[in-house]
Amino acid sequence: MKRARGNGGARDKLRPEGILILGHQGSDPVIARELDLPVPSKGELLSVRVVPDDGISPSAKTFIADQYWRVASPGDPIVERRMYAGSSDPTTDRA
What we know:
Arc Repressor Mutant, subunit A; 4-stranded antiparallel beta sheet; alpha+beta
């Protein structure tokens, strides 16, 4: 589990590519539900690549750090930008 956490773990390394690693704590289950993904149980992790969304499209979306995000499609480009500022965990920076 340490490798999946923030503070230099996979969450920090994959975040710039738009990949979230969701677990069973904090806002992670809420984000998973909002994106129509399976909700991780205790001890489970789920990774998903997300891209910005306009907030109007009918796709499932979640709101993180003043921005709507949706699950990326295979053809979506990698968006290299910060999903959330000032936090090591996207789920703590929800608006």
